[in-house]
């Protein structure tokens, strides 16, 4: 993957096509439900959740296989975190997109940077309720800054 997390590294999968398709579907379920999930937590989900079905067979697949299978349903951040790009809420998604774009290049963002970027991108001040909802879902506060979650929390 690119520095900072960009897209998946494309290569020929070593997994059978049926397993890749099952893995894509399972990852979509996990990411939609959790909205942010680290690869370690995803592997645990695949092993433990019956909805994973045959995708559980990919629990030990290389990270790149999981990242490639996630393409289309999740965005990779920093090579080990998958995030749901949209929550299908018109009041939240535009701001969510701005925050995710910022998190693609760095794991920690200053509160003031977020407000400036959001106002510049969206042309309006982001309501506090939307700001808090998006950032509390994707980040934790560390020393007055928002830090990307690992996605490996329960």
From TrEMBL:
Q: Name one GO cellular component term.
A: RNA polymerase III complex
InterPro entries the UniProt entry points to: RNA_pol_III_Rpc5
**Could you name the domain of life of the organism this protein comes from?**
Eukaryota
The processes (GO biological process) annotated in the record are: tRNA transcription by RNA polymerase III
Q: Which PANTHER family match?
A: DNA-DIRECTED RNA POLYMERASE III SUBUNIT RPC5, DNA-DIRECTED RNA POLYMERASES III 80 KDA POLYPEPTIDE RNA POLYMERASE III SUBUNIT 5
Q: What is this protein called?
A: Uncharacterized protein
